[in-house]
Amino acid sequence: MAVIMVEGFDKYGPANSNSTSVTALMVGEWTTITAVNIAAPLSATGQAVTNGGAMTLTKTITAVGRIIGGVRFSSVLTQNIGVQFLDGASSQCGIQIAVTGIINLRNGFYTTGTILGSSASAISANTTHYLEWDITLGNSASYNVYLDGVSIISGTGDTTATANNTISGVSLQVAAGTNLATFDDFYLFDSTGSTNNAPLLTSPRIETTAPLSDSAVQFAIGASVLGGTVARTTTNFSTAANQFYVRPFTPSRACTINSISISVNATSATVNLRPVVYSDSSGVPGSLLSGGSTVTGITAATIATLPLTTPQSLTAGTQYWLGYMADIAVTNAFQAYDASAVGRTATSTFSSGAPGTAPSTTAGQTTVLLWGNVTLASAANFYEVSQSPPPAADTSYVADGTVSDEDLYNFANLSAVPASIYAVAVKAFCKRSDSGARTVSLRMKSSTTDGGGSSTGQTPATSYAWIGSNFETDPNGSIPWTGVNLNAATTGIKIDA
């Protein structure tokens, strides 16, 4: 297959500035992840990736002698950015977008190697462009670099800096700074196969869709959550003595909440916590619906789970307030979720228990990273696997261990019917939970044909990581994809062995 990788950076959730959480979410898809944040997209949908420092984002690939690919980019042009082609850890050649706006193809490292060719004109700062390349590796090999579908550098020269005429890695790089460059809509091809073996030259866009409903499922629900479980910021939140804290949640499905979990940032052996669930009263917390007994002590980097004494039924589409009460002050006790500041706080005596009616609260407080652990009123496997971004822990998942069992889901339609669909990639964030041999395949069912794409019999890691399979043609007849056929297809995962 010619497709090596497609990446729209959409599946890592909304924009954030938390490189640590993004790194955990990219494992398996990328090999080296340094100083990466998620940003608003450069194209019409999804997200993009930006630098949170000297950024390196590397994909290790099977060694090839010719590499084809492209990426959308924007730069403030105060630091060098570029695409580095690697032979192991060594630089073969690279494309530099210099601070002058000139684009160079260099032998060796992308900022210091010998220039093989340069663009005749410069790009402007903060403008979005699509960069593509078609580079053969060799001492006297052909190369082409394109900008927005037009050739800007071409010729023959030494595209290697090692003894090998291959590359085994591609890296997106930013020299330094923060939020100085953005990348989106990345693809990599080799030159094999009958499709996708040449630059696209169409400024392609990668759109990511998530499961919308169940089609045919056999996996069992492992756990379900209400709310996001991955931090979108590095901010922390301190408890205060007799603190009452809540933030709003609206379930998309009817469910029963059993406990509240909080992402902990600091350690305290003596702090006492109590979970609370309140109804909504005209946009503020109202009546107590459920509470729990005291949980003592928190440990940094460990999720604190506070069980409810009586699980509470929640209605889909109705707003509720979830939170906790704390008895003492703990500096930077909890991880913040994002910058929305939708939390509300009050002072309420811990020893008196959860008040039947919520006290008057102060708005605009940090949005603490907490969520509800729920049981759905009716099974819906798609709900657990459509979390965006996916949790890197066992908080929301489906599971199975029976060979040939398969889950298939319906997906949201593409935002627009494209003129051409070059490839479809199916990806899953999964892990192997047993110690035996276990392989899976990612499936695409079009009409009555159920295929596994470019990679079947994959062995998941024992911790969460991405796996994927590419479908360059519609499995129903091995014909070019159409928007209608793709929108009608179902996708999922199957236990192979």
Structural summary, described in words:
With 497 residues, this protein is mainly beta. The protein has three domains: 3-189, Sandwich (Jelly Rolls), CATH 2.60.120; 211-219 and 400-495, no CATH class; 222-376, PHR domain (Jelly Rolls), CATH 2.60.120. The protein is 4% helix and 51% strand. Strands 1, 2, 3, 4, 5, 6, 7, 8, 9, 10, 11, 12 and 13 form a 13-stranded antiparallel beta sheet that branches. Strands 16, 17, 19, 20, 21, 23, 24 and 25 form an eight-stranded antiparallel beta sheet that branches. A hairpin with a 4-residue loop joins strand 9 and strand 10 (141-147). The protein is globular and about 80 Å long. The protein starts with a strand and ends with a strand. The mean pLDDT is 97.
Task: Write a concise synopsis of the structure shown.
This protein is mostly beta strands and 497 residues long. The protein folds into 3 domains: 3-189, Sandwich (Jelly Rolls); 211-219 and 400-495, no CATH class; 222-376, Jelly Rolls.
Q: β content, as a range?
A: over 45%
The mean pLDDT is 97
Main sheet summary: 13 strands, antiparallel
- How many domains make up the coordinates? 3
Rg from Cα: 25 Å
Query: How many DSSP helices?
Result: 3
What form results from the Cα inertia axes? Answer: globular
Structural class, by secondary structure, is mainly beta
CATH domain fold name of the largest domain: Jelly Rolls
Number of strands: 33
Distance between the first and last residues' Cα: 24 Å
CATH architecture of the largest domain: Sandwich
Q: Tell me, what is the CATH class of the largest domain?
A: Mainly Beta
Stretches where pLDDT is under 50 for at least 5 consecutive residues are: none
> Helix content range of the residues, please?
under 10%
